[in-house]
Amino acid sequence: MEYQNQYQDAPETKYECLLFDVDDTLYSQSSGLSKQCTKNIEEYMIEKLGMEESSASELNMVLYRNYGTSMAGLKAIGYEFDNDDYHSYVHGRLPYENLKPDPVLRNLLLSMPIRKVIFSNADKVHVAKVLKKLGLEDCFEGIVNFESLNPENTSNSDDGHEPKDLLCRSGSNTEIVAGDSQLLKTPILCKPFEDAFEQAFNIANINPQKTLFFDDSTRNIETGKNMGLHTVLVGKSHRTNGADYALESIHNIREALPELFCTDHKRSKSIKYSEKVAIETSVRA
C-alpha cells in the first residue's frame, strides 16, 4: 500500500491504519452531546418538517435504528430538506462547551506511529469542532465525513410528494416496512451500510485487512468486521458480535493493544500517561 513505509519507526504490527469514529468514541457519552443531539433532531422534525410532537420521538428512534442516522431515514421515507440546514439545526446547538481538552488521549494518539483517520457520519463542521475542543485536531492524517461520503447528494427530484406511510404498529413495537419488509433506499451514504465503508476505504486509501476500526456502535462494528476490518468496540465492557476487542474507555488503548505503541525510549519517556485512567476501565479481548 501507499502508506506502508510512511512511519519508519513503527513497531512491527499487523496494522497500517487506525480508523476512528468521533461521537461517543473519542469522548464519553456522559458529555451530554448525544442526548442533546437526539432532542435537536426531534425538534427539527416537529418544527421544520411539520410532524406531530407525539410521534416524532418514536419515529426518530425507528429511523435511527434502521438507517444509522435519522437524516438518512427521513430522506428514505420521502422528506425533503436542505442537508446544511439540518446539520446547522441539529449540531449547531450542541453543548460543545462540555467537551474539554484531553491531553491523555492526545498523547496516546501521538505515540502510536501508525496513520490515523477519522470515519464519521457527521458533517465536517461538527467533526472539526469536536476535534478542536478535545485538542486532537492535528492527530489525524485524514477525515472521512458526511460531505466526503456524499459529495453530490441532492434532494429527491419529485418535490412535494407526501412522505410514505411506513409505520406499522404491532402492540408497543414500531417497525419501518416497505413491500416485503425491505427498507426503502436512502440517498444518504452512511454507516452502518457496507457501501459507506467501501467509499471510506476508497477515499482514505485503506486496506481493511490492515486496519483497526474503533467505534461505539455495535452495528457499525459488525459491518466493519464483515468488511474485513479488525474491530474495537468503545464504551462497552464486553465484546459483541463482530468485535475483536471491547474498551470501556478510549483511554484504555495502550492496555488492550500495546503493540500499537512506539517502543523508542526517547519518544516514550516524553509522554506521560494517567495511571488512574489505565486502571479505571476494563478490557475484554
UniProtKB/TrEMBL annotation:
<dbReference type="InterPro" id="IPR036412">
    <property type="entry name" value="HAD-like_sf"/>
</dbReference>
<dbReference type="Pfam" id="PF00702">
    <property type="entry name" value="Hydrolase"/>
</dbReference>
<dbReference type="InterPro" id="IPR006439">
    <property type="entry name" value="HAD-SF_hydro_IA"/>
</dbReference>
<dbReference type="InterPro" id="IPR010237">
    <property type="entry name" value="Pyr-5-nucltdase"/>
</dbReference>
<dbReference type="InterPro" id="IPR023214">
    <property type="entry name" value="HAD_sf"/>
</dbReference>
<protein>
    <recommendedName>
        <fullName>Pyrimidine 5-nucleotidase</fullName>
    </recommendedName>
</protein>
